[in-house]
Design a protein that fits this description.
seven-stranded parallel β-sheet; 8 helices; globular; NAD(P)-bd_dom_sf; oxidoreductase; NAD(P)-dependent dehydrogenase, short-chain alcohol dehydrogenase family
Length: 252
């Protein structure tokens, strides 16, 4: 059985990716930050469908915790799947906050950097010795890093997501001798808990976003989760170094 690690899988896109991977017969190690209950819900959902999943705590903004996390991954692989390697990694965990350029503090900039770019960079580096040859990595960026999704207030957030897209190409190049494929997906506006539950708190923004989207609605977590599972699966075997927008034609 293949095994995937999905960061930030207690809700939204990460939760969907974990469930979709499990539906395809992949074991899942999923991580959570503050939302332990959501992570356990994800595990329960996967187990109810006959899959296997383990939830582990991880703060992607604290690189000093990565050695301990790696040790817990080793234990989970051994105890649950009798393996010493995993196959796929989904760097999804993150946070979003709107802040106009002139209002962005160094503190917020540094938090964006730690969680959205430095975290995935060094987490991938830490886990790489455990990743099996022929596996795959998907980095979740954002269409705010593309021309189509350019909106005021996301300069700090999108700068880090753009950096993650560049890292994706370098990883694809450097890991190709091991047959490891690396791609990035750029979701548009998606109905998740990101940005402090913005869609729940401000439902009035949804019609405006839907009106700017060619396919006429905002994204749902499964729109993105299915794409992640596809890229990691056999269907994606000839795709690497790509940055794919998954946004229903935003600003088309």
């Amino acid at each position: 059985m293949q095994v995937a690690i999905v960061t930030g899988a207690s809700s939204g896109i990460g939760q969907s990716a974990a469930v979709q991977l499990a539906k395809r017969g992949t074991g899942v190690i999923l991580t959570y930050g503050r939302n332990q209950a959501g992570a356990y819900d994800t595990v329960a959902h996967i187990e109810k469908e006959g899959g296997t999943a383990v939830a582990l705590p991880l703060d992607v903004g604290r690189t000093e915790t990565f050695p301990a996390f790696r040790a817990s991954v080793v234990a989970a692989l051994r105890d649950t799947w009798q393996r010493d390697t995993f196959d796929h990694l989904v760097n999804n965990a993150g946070f979003s906050q709107m802040s106009m350029f002139e209002d962005t503090s160094e503190e917020l900039f540094d938090r964006f950097l730690r969680v959205l770019l430095k975290g995935p960079y060094f987490l991938t580096q830490s886990l790489l010795p455990l990743q099996a040859d022929g596996g795959a990595i998907v980095n979740v960026t954002s269409n705010s890093a593309l021309e189509s999704g350019l909106e005021p207030g996301y300069s700090g957030y999108a700068t880090m997501k753009g950096g993650l897209a560049v890292l994706t190409r370098y990883l694809a190049k450097e890991l190709s001798p091991r047959g490891i494929r690396v791609n990035a997906i750029a979701p548009g506006a998606t109905r998740t808990r990101l940005a402090d539950d913005a869609f729940e708190k401000y439902p009035e923004v949804i019609p405006a976003l839907a009106a700017k989207t060619a396919l006429g609605r905002v994204g749902e977590p499964d729109d993105i989760g299915m794409m992640i599972a596809t890229l990691l699966g056999e269907e994606g075997r000839w795709i690497t170094a790509q940055h794919i927008e998954v946004a229903g034609g935003y600003n088309l």
